[in-house]
Amino acid sequence: MAYPQKEEQRNTGRTHFGKWIVVFVIGGVALAAETSLLLQQIPTDLLLKADKSKIIYSQNIRDIRCDENRTTCQDFGEIKSYLYVSDVEVPQAEIIFEGKIIKEDLSQRTRNAQFFKKETQNKRDYWIGKFYAGIPFYKEGNKWYQTETATTTIDAFEKQTASFWGKTTFADTATTTSNAGDGAVYYYSGATWAAAHDATVGDAVSYTATADDTICSGQWGGNYRIYRAFYPFDTSSLPDNAIITEATFSVVFDSVLDQDNDGNDYATVNQTSQASPTELVVADFDNVGSVEGTDARVDFGNIVTLQYTNFLLNAAGRGFISKTGWTLLGMREGHDILNDPYAGGDNTMNRANTRFSEYTGTNNDPTLVIIYSTALPIDDTRIIISDE
Fold it and tell me: How do residues 177-190 score in pLDDT, each as one tens digit?
């Protein structure tokens, strides 16, 4: 008599379970329909560039737009900037060095660096490390993909990243750091040259644009102005025992204005101490060094735009490189680093605009190429000599 009762209870449970499945499926369809309708209501230019599962990092930034000479700026409030994994695969790279083709050692690649083994000589391995500002690479399985940066409104971002469970699911956020803080800090309200040069806090910053003004000395509307550039590189993947023999910092200039051609109208490299390598604040304006990290100053009149300009680092510049953390490089205009008052007249400037890590692809990113060597592992094989 007990057996049929158990069977009845078991059938009842199965029936209830079936109802739950139906309810869940119907709820899922309703959610999908609601989500589809929601996306249709979002303007095309505000749609995410990739699925939310491909988003690595996001942050709120100020949408500040200025005219060409930064005489008028308007704050449109906060927007959302995000870094996402694109569908562009980044295969093994090749470089030509001293006439030889060298293939990348993919086993050594990191999210911001590529390594090329040059040769082995005199019990040392010689390497070329190419470091990028930002996080240009992302690994999924055994493949690497290009990352890109985009913006949208905060509301549009939240609507498109919301899930059924009330949470957002992004890419590998547990091991992801935020994007790089390469950009510039601007001061443009100095009544005197000294007021601008010695200011401790700037008037504005730019570190999320694809390209922007970076270095400048000038005078506009009766006020002196100075812009200072910041380029942080995560070089922690360098071996602790690396002996650095050469390093080159490279940037792509978009445009150059040279209106005080007195010999001090040049770009040079310095070390910075920005408070965070992943962002810039106006208080970073004076977090710059005055020691030049290159002997290869580049005169504004000799800059070729839309291609890399290279700065070979001198001994001081190579000393700026960290093997355990961030290498914080910067760039200053000649009058600024020499503290030589700009004398080009009112409404004139020596100004350069460069491309940042947010620029599409990696062919325009700021780079730091380091040539170094490491000792080969010691062979601890023991040689036993017998008296017999």
Answer: 456 799 999 999 99
Average pLDDT, the chain: 86
Secondary structure of the chain in HEC code, one letter for each residue: CHHHHHHHHHHHHHHHHHHHHHHHHHHHHHHHHHHHHHHHCCCHHHCCCCCHHHEEEEEEEEEEEECCCCCCEEEEEEEEEEEEEEEEECCCCEEEECCEEEEECHHHCCCCEEEEEEEEECCEEEEEEEEECCCCEEEECCEEEEEEEEEECHHHHHHHHCCCCCCCCCCCHHHCCCCCCCEEEEEEEECCHHHHHCCCCCCEEECCCCEEEEEEEEEECCEEEEEEEEEEEECCCCCCCCEEEEEEEEEEEEEEEECCCCCCCEEEEEEECCCCCCCCCHHHHHCECCCCCECCCEEHHHCCCCCEEEEEECHHHHHCCCCCCEEEEEEEEHHHHHCCCCCCCCCEEEEEEEECCCCCCCCCCCEEEEEEEEECCCCCCCCCCCCC
| Burial (CB count within 10 angstroms: exposed 0-12, middle 13-18, buried 19+), residue 338 | middle
Structure confidence by residue, pLDDT tens digits, 3-15: 334 334 434 444 4
- pTM comes to 0.84
